[in-house]
Amino acid sequence: MLLEKIKSLAKTYQAENVSVRRHLHANPELSYQEFETSKYVQATLSKIGIPFTVIATTGVLGIIEGKNPNKRIVALRADMDALPIVEENKVDYISKNHGVMHACGHDVHTTILLGAAKILWELRNEFEGTIKLLFQPGEEKNPGGASYMIRDGALQNPIPQGIVGLHVHPGLDKGKLSFRKGRVMASADELYVSIKGPGGHAATPHQTVDTVLVAAQLITSLQTIISRNRNPQQPSVLSICSIHGGNTTNVIPSEVKLMGTFRAMDETWRFEAHQLMMQQAKGLALATGAEIDFKVDVGYPTVDNEPVITEAAWKLADQFMGAENVEETEKRMGAEDFGYYSQVIPGCFFRVGVKNEAQGIIHNVHTPHFNIDEAAIEHGVGMMAWLGTQLFA
Question: Whole-model pTM above 0.90?
Answer without folding.
Answer: yes
